[in-house]
Amino acid sequence: MTTTRSLTGLALAAALVAIAPATAQAATAPAAVPATAPAAADPAAGQSATQGTIRWGTYYAPGHRARTHGSLTVSGEDHAVLPVAANSRITGKVYDLTRSASSCGWAVFRLTYRTADGKNLPFKHRSVIDCSYGTPKAFTFTQHDLYQVQLKVCSEPKASKPSLNCLYAGTWKVLYTSK
């Protein structure tokens, strides 16, 4: 019986070793986009759109204490130096889902853009805060030469900017990447 278990374990391990390289290659290989793909892509997968509107969300803060959703419109992708969208507009709403007066809902965006010399891709944060339970805060902003948009939703006390915990704990959701 011990021999049977050992052989079964070895067989499973050998099967995993045989499958792992193919799975890793499939996970890292870029997905082929057909030439007739629609302008709006699936934002949950972090795909790109050559031109059009991408709907994103609903995304929640840990514990469902805040949420946000919206859309992203991109136009004029330029692939001369680095692939970027010439113009982009991000709109949405952020909701505070706590009844506490000391807590607010945050939508924090990390916008990666191309510099004027076209050689670098720095990023900046753009935050929207809502501290009124039951009344969402609408937002709209634009970014030129956009390469990537990432989002994080947090629920924290009211402040002038999001905390380091909000910015650096957890993972960012990729809403758009120019390709």
Order of helices and strands: HEEEEEEHE
Q: How many H/I helices?
A: 2
Give me the secondary-structure category: alpha+beta
Largest sheet: 7 strands, antiparallel
Give a brief outline of the structure.
Keywords: Signal. The chain is α+β, with helices and mostly antiparallel strands. The protein is built from 2 helices and 7 strands.
Provide an overview of this structure.
Keywords: Signal. Residues 1-26 form the signal peptide. By secondary structure, the protein is α+β, with helices and mostly antiparallel strands. The chain has 2 domains: 1-31; 44-177, Immunoglobulin-like, CATH 2.60.40. The protein is built from 2 helices and 7 strands; from the N terminus they run H-E-E-E-E-E-E-H-E. The chain has helices spanning 2-28, 164-168; strands spanning 52-60, 66-78, 84-96, 104-113, 123-130, 137-156, 173-177. The chain is elongated.
List keywords for this structure.
179 residues; alpha+beta; Immunoglobulin-like; seven-stranded antiparallel beta sheet; 2 helices; 7 strands; 44% strand; elongated; disordered N terminus; signal
Give the helix/strand layout:
Layout (H helix, E strand, L loop, with lengths): L1 H27 L23 E9 L5 E13 L5 E13 L7 E10 L9 E8 L6 E20 L7 H5 L4 E5 L2
Antiparallel strand pairs: 1-2, 2-3, 3-6, 4-5, 4-6, 6-7
